[in-house]
Structure formats: structure tokens, C-alpha cells
Design a protein that fits this description.
about 10% strand, two-stranded antiparallel sheet, mainly alpha, two-stranded antiparallel ribbon
Length: about 325
């Protein structure tokens, strides 16, 4: 009887071990969520709560398996905060590895060339990456501007147009720093050296590049348009560029009038010679390069053809003829 009891106990133990191994094996089988799952992990969240949420959402079969694995690897407190997206098949080891490495969902924000601070702040707010008004205030905050190494009244022109990827929940200040750093990386020694040969410091380079950016979206035309402005500056002629006038008008309604052209704002390049006080938008790399390396021409005028391109003239007489042909039809 004792021998039989011992055999029964051994058999029961063996069956329990086999059942346990089968259960563990089942727990660790990769799972494919029925639909993509986005989970936000906040600072201080306990792994047990995270594991239960992952189980409820169908990302892992068992919260217990994930907690056990984390305990065995001493990683229970190593999970990074952020938004995680789960869509592909994965086992608990792969899920834990993502949580520990901080493989969070990246947000994306595109700032087009030629956007000004107001437009950038509106886009930030529209995509819920921050408060638009706060973003705009920070871009005009002297203390923040100084910490970025910028000598200007605002960061107009200093936020590089680019597609940015970052962790959701990023602070407005960090987003601004990221954009300024992108610009500073583009302004390398070669580009700044070329600008210096044109008697342009960094701020003047950005100012002229922003005007070129607003005058044309065609990269191949930018060096020619740049040459017109350089030629005018060398001759002490007013730049007479509409985008600067528009920038200086509060609440511009889209209709540029003769009265606007005579209003004495600091950005009215019909009234005042030389460059305006600062950039009027964020120039892209092509505009920056064009401002620093203008084409060699003797053009002093240009007018839109109405198809996105421009006609360039050397004399006022040629220019007036082009205006009558393309603008006064």
C-alpha cells in the first residue's frame, strides 16, 4: 500500500509539473492583437497594472507571465513611460524588451518651408502637440532665446522647416529647442562662410533667405531671385518685395493695396532701404543656400508669370514691359 501511495504521489506530481509547463508554454506563445493597440504608460505606473492592461487589450495571454519574466530578469522597475503601439505578433519576452528599451510610439509633425511663427504655433496646436499661445509666447521669450544662443527679438526664421519625430507629450520648450538645433546644424561653416563673403551675418542670412522663400517655391529660381536682391542691396536700392510688407501688416486680409505699400512699418521694403529687421518666415535649406550663393546676374527686377515662375529684367523699361504682359492683361 505504501509503495502504491508513493507511486500515486509521484504520478500526481509529474502530472502537475507537465500541466504547469504546458500552461507556461501557453502563456508564452506569441499573441497577435485583433486590432492595433495603443497604451499610454505614465510615470510611476506599477508593472502589475501595466501587465493587466496588456492582458485586457489582448497583447499578452497572461499578466502573470509578464510579471514573472520581469521579476526573473530584475526588470520590474525598468519600464519607460510613453505611448506604445502593439500590432504585430509578440511573446512576453518581446513585449518586455520593448517596454524596457523605451520603444515608444513616435509622433510626427511637419513644418513646411515658408511658415511663420504664427502658422507654426497654429499647427502645433492643431495636432495637439502643445498650447499654441504658449508656444508663440516661448518663441518671443528673451530668456529662452538667449539660452539657445540666438541674438534676436524672436525666433522667427530660426525654427527649421522639417518633419520632426518625437515622443508624444513633449514640452513646447523642447519642441522649440529641437527645431532651433535643426537649423543650427544646417548652418555649417561652409554656408556661413559663403554668407560672410556676401557681407551677411547669420541673422541677415536668415532674413534674406526667408524673403527668397516667400517669393518662390522653385529651388532652381531661388539663386536668381537672390541675385536680384543682392544687386539691389549693392546699389542701395530698396528691395521692394511684397512679402515683407505683408508681414508688417497686422491682420492682413489677403489684399495688398497701395496704402499698404506706403505705410511706414519696419518691414516695408518699399519705404526703407536694406534688409528688414529680421526674418519673415522659416526658410528651407535651398533658400538658405541661395541667399549665401546667389547666381551671377545683372538683374534688378522680376515679376510673376502667373504659373509659379518669374520673368527677370535688367532695366526698369524691360520690367514694365513684363508687368504689362503678365500682370495687366
Amino acid at each position: 500500500m505504501r509503495l502504491l501511495s508513493a507511486k500515486s504521489a509521484l504520478l500526481a506530481t509529474t502530472l502537475l509539473v507537465i500541466a504547469g509547463l504546458c500552461l507556461l508554454g501557453y502563456w508564452f506563445v506569441p499573441v497577435t492583437p485583433s486590432a492595433p493597440v495603443l497604451i499610454e504608460i505614465e510615470s510611476g505606473a506599477a508593472l502589475s497594472r501595466i501587465a493587466r492592461q496588456l492582458e485586457r487589450q489582448g497583447v499578452v495571454r497572461s499578466a502573470a507571465a509578464l510579471k514573472l519574466l520581469a521579476r526573473l530578469r530584475n526588470q520590474s522597475g525598468a519600464v519607460h513611460v510613453g505611448s506604445y503601439r502593439f500590432a504585430d505578433p509578440a511573446d512576453p519576452a518581446e513585449i518586455l524588451a520593448r517596454l524596457v528599451s523605451g520603444d515608444v510610439e513616435q509622433a510626427s509633425l511637419t513644418i513646411p518651408e515658408g511658415f511663420n511663427l504664427q502658422q507654426i504655433s497654429e499647427r502645433v496646436a492643431k495636432h495637439k502637440f502643445g498650447d499654441g499661445e504658449r508656444f508663440l509666447q516661448l518663441c518671443r521669450d528673451p530668456q529662452l532665446i538667449a539660452t539657445l544662443g540666438i541674438e534676436a527679438a524672436s525666433l522667427e526664421g530660426y525654427l527649421f522647416p522639417e518633419t520632426y519625430r518625437f515622443t508624444p507629450g513633449i514640452a513646447e520648450t523642447e519642441l522649440i529647442r529641437m527645431m532651433v538645433q535643426q537649423l543650427l546644424q544646417r548652418l555649417d561653416k561652409q554656408l556661413l562662410g559663403a554668407a560672410q563673403k556676401q557681407d551677411l551675418d547669420r541673422h541677415q542670412l536668415l532674413t534674406l533667405a526667408s524673403i527668397i522663400e516667400k517669393e518662390t517655391g522653385l529651388a532652381d529660381e531661388m539663386p536668381v531671385i537672390s541675385s536680384v536682391f543682392h544687386n539691389r542691396l549693392q546699389r542701395n536700392m530698396p528691395l521692394q518685395t511684397d512679402p515683407t510688407v505683408i508681414y508688417g501688416i497686422a491682420d492682413f486680409d489677403g489684399n495688398l493695396t497701395r496704402n499698404h505699400l506706403t505705410t511706414p512699418t519696419p518691414y516695408n521694403t518699399y519705404r526703407f532701404r536694406g534688409l528688414p529687421p529680421g526674418p519673415i518666415a522659416s526658410p528651407g535649406l535651398a533658400a538658405l543656400q541661395a541667399a549665401a550663393r546667389p547666381a551671377e546676374t545683372d538683374y534688378l527686377y522680376f515679376v510673376s508669370r502667373g504659373d509659379g515662375r518669374h520673368v527677370f529684367s535688367r532695366t526698369l523699361r524691360e520690367h514694365n514691359q513684363a508687368v504689362r504682359r503678365f500682370q495687366l492683361q
